[in-house]
Design brief:
The structure is a homotetramer.
Chain A (H helix, E strand, L loop, with lengths): L1 H12 L11 H19 L3 H6 L1 H25 L9 H10 L1 H14 L14 H10 L2 H15 L1 H26 L4 H4 L2 H12 L12 H43 L1
Helix pairs in contact in A: 1-4, 2-4, 2-7, 4-5, 4-6, 6-7, 8-12, 9-11, 9-12
């Protein structure tokens, strides 16, 4: 009775096998573990938390490592269930060489390596890649492709607006460099320095660490801000529209398909 | 002649009874009292005002309390007017156990309790909940349901864009943590700390309490700001579109219905 | 030959007389004078400029005053040309009592009064009202009405979104008052004080004069910023959509009419 | 065999000659050189970089100058290939007098002049104009015209919204000048000074160098920010919509044409 079990495990691990495109229970569990592992690696970068809960962090990392190890082993074990020709070991080797197989190996390494070399702990965030691999399965995959093709269709708009926005950012930086370069040399003393001001102003973030102080600089900055804020927002606006359109198409097709 | 009066009071208290879905005079009066009570509890948190007008605040709170008490009593008294089977006292008990009945009780408690325990005065803002109960009556109720169903229909878009935005916020925080963690350890010394910067930058709030100071950090922050500002705005954009669509449908249906 | 001249002057002063809805030459000239007068009254508030060019400012103000005086006299003189029954003096009195007549009188007063009482010079900005009176003539008037009716049609959406945005601003202020009221009492020590933070954050202005400093406050502020920025922008988004729709209708109708 | 070569060079230099509207290989190469030249002139304004790589900057500028010189010579040489009547030298003179010919001359001058007068190095950014000349060729040209005509069609909306936004900025500045002019005379002491605050607030940049500090000023600023942020964004929103519409039309026409 060994084969049916291997087959059931394989079906649980690969969401594709199910028709509806829904994630299986095992994948939901795995996604939860990965999200917890990502959260743990985020919190572990905080020195105060890390000092206080050093043992706890080590413990959960070992637990996450075991989970990933079990999953990796299960995938290698069940790899022969994949359709197509080839012996069991050929299929296993194919899985090890595949994108998913390599990422799983990397995730395993970054889980255990920082236990010996603590400096590389930040690498654990690579686990997010693993999360994306799960998200790509099932119906997210087709939605993702539709978004990409919608963006591709509007690439001409994107080029033009990115060019316009870049030009405006550069123009703003040059204007303020000329107007305030001699007054605030550390902030506007060169165009690369003034570019920081231009980006932070035209995205309307406006930290306030760099701002013009002369009447001429303020007048120029006012005109550039009034004219530019909308222009710089256009490429992202176009991408948002493309995304929204792709999602509507996706919904319609799924509506018909089901 | 006792019944007709009770019936009229009940009709005034429950807006639903009227066909058009408009609020009754009593409900408008009640809404005004609640808004004034909310304003009073907001202003009372200001120490300077509270010290100067301590007696006045106490007086108006007693007045508001009386209003709520009268309303609560009136609702209990008129509860038997509600359609359906059951004795008068069963209906009264049903009202006391209902959502509205419980909220009214809580509002009464938070109005009188701070007169003895001043520390809990901020609880008086729970009155806002009471205001929402009124708003839910009449035609706001159906509009609200349409908004909810429009958002529910686009939940897939919301998931995807929230995931993308979260990923970008996390990516930005990690990038700046790596770039400036050693230069500004109190601001970028861990990913949780850098997340504050990422959220405030990508929502374009940009307080300026945290901003990169090294050329590498500034370059990374520029790229992240230019690319991310639109992405982070997408979930709210989708919700705004869903709201707008739902409102148009609501208008059309009301146009036909009347 | 006195009547034809008066008639021609009247036609020049009242743009309505011309069919196409275009402003007459006299109105363009007048608009230019008013814009210059507004600019002059703006610049005159700047102490440094005012001290240096005191005589020049006085001179141009006298010139503007003469222009307005001549216009006022011309309108009184030509008032009898208006269609409808009534003697010459009845029509003149009607003009003096009309909105335009009263505003012209006020503009005249605020032009000459600050020459004796300099403190009221800022009143000269009332001239902007005069500019709007001109803008309301001709085709701007019908466009303006269409914008108003488009906004009126969507007043329900406006109510709902303004209520939601107000609630969120209030909720954010309360949350930060509870989280940081004891840490930064001068900034979050009461809900009215925290409201300043909430408005400046949720409009994404983010001056940085007030921002949370505790981890709890930062977490709350992050969530509120991510969720609220889009909500607070919704009422203005709805008004923008109404405006855009009204303008398109206006364009279509003009396209058919001409 | 001299003529065919000259003809081939001319076809490479002028993208127009090719039907599909695509840029030729020579134009792509030229665009790359110009972008590199622009980047070099940006980086050269940074004093630290300039000091360290002075010789390298001089060297690449000479290389860029040679490229532009070769191109200029090639265009003069091949000018007779242009269709139309006239002798070879008449056509060459026509090219020298044309917009492109003059800009190429200016670019050459600003490349070599700063080698003798370093103060004018910033003029090298004029090269961006040259880049735009290339972008105007081919299919960008027709797209650009469509954008211009779409904006032109909506010029009435633009006038109205720009007027409204200007009025709001001026109104906000006046309100804060009256509210805080005596408290912060250096920041709100005149309307021109308060305008800086109004522009930076209503574009939501919000540096924080100027912000109200009195309760009255904060209340006014809150109301103005809540009401104005959307209004000030409307002109750019209209231009973005016009751009988006023009791009869709452009795509449709190209789809039919090809």
């Amino acid at each position: 009775m060994r084969l049916p079990l291997r087959n059931r495990v394989w079906l649980q691990l690969t969401g594709d096998a199910k028709g509806g495109g829904r994630l299986t229970g095992a994948n939901w569990a795995l996604a939860t573990v990965i999200i917890l592992a990502v959260l743990s690696s985020i919190l572990a970068t905080e020195p105060e938390l890390h000092k206080r809960f050093e043992h706890e962090f080590r413990l959960v990392e070992i637990l996450f490592g075991l989970c990933f190890l079990v999953e990796y082993a299960a995938r290698i074990w069940t790899a022969p269930e994949a359709p197509g020709p080839g012996t069991d070991w050929e299929k296993r080797w194919a899985f090890l060489k595949s994108g998913l197989g390599l990422i799983e190996l990397v995730v395993l390494i970054v889980t255990f390596l920082p236990m010996f070399i603590p400096e590389v702990a930040v690498l654990r965030l690579i686990r997010l890649l693993r999360l994306m691999m799960i998200a790509r399965m099932g119906r997210f995959s087709s939605a993702f492709n539709e978004v990409l093709s919608a963006i591709n269709e509007r690439r001409f708009e994107l080029y033009v607006t990115i060019a316009l926005a870049s030009f405006l950012v550069l123009f703003g930086a040059t204007a303020l460099y000329l107007a305030e370069g001699h007054v605030q040399p550390d902030k506007f003393g060169s165009i690369p320095r003034a570019l920081w001001w231009a980006v932070i102003t035209l995205t309307t973030v406006g930290y306030g660490d760099v701002s013009p102080i002369t009447p001429l600089g303020k007048m120029m900055a006012s005109v550039i801000a009034l004219a530019g804020v909308g222009l710089v927002a256009m490429p992202t606006g176009i991408m948002a529209a493309a995304f929204s359109e792709a999602m509507q198409n996706h919904r319609k097709r799924r509506g018909k398909g089901e």
